[in-house]
Amino acid sequence: MIDWKNEVEQRKEEFIKDLQTLLHFESILDPDTAKEGAPFGEGIHHTLTHLLEKGESDGFTSKNLDGYAGHLEFGKGKELIGVLCHIDVVPAGDGWSSDPFAAEIRDGKIFARGAIDDKGPTMAAYYAMKIIKDLGIDLNRRVRLIIGTDEESNWRCVKHYFKHEEMPTMGFAPDASFPIIYAEKGLFDCEWKRKEQGSSEGGDVHLVSFESGRRLNMVPDFAEAVLEGQRLASIAEEFHSFIKDKELNGSVSEENGQYKLNVEGLSYHGSKPEKGKNAGLYLASFLSKYSMDEEANDFIRLANDYLTDDTEGVKLGIKDSDDITGPLTLNTGIMNYTSDKGGRFGLNLRYPVSHEFKRTNSILKEVGAKFGYELHEIEHLTPHHVPKDHELIKKLMSVYEQHTGDEGYLISIGGGTYARSLDAGVAFGAQFPGDPEIAHQKDEHADIKSLLRATAIYAQAIYELAK
Question: Which residues are catalytic?
Answer without folding.
Answer: 88, 151
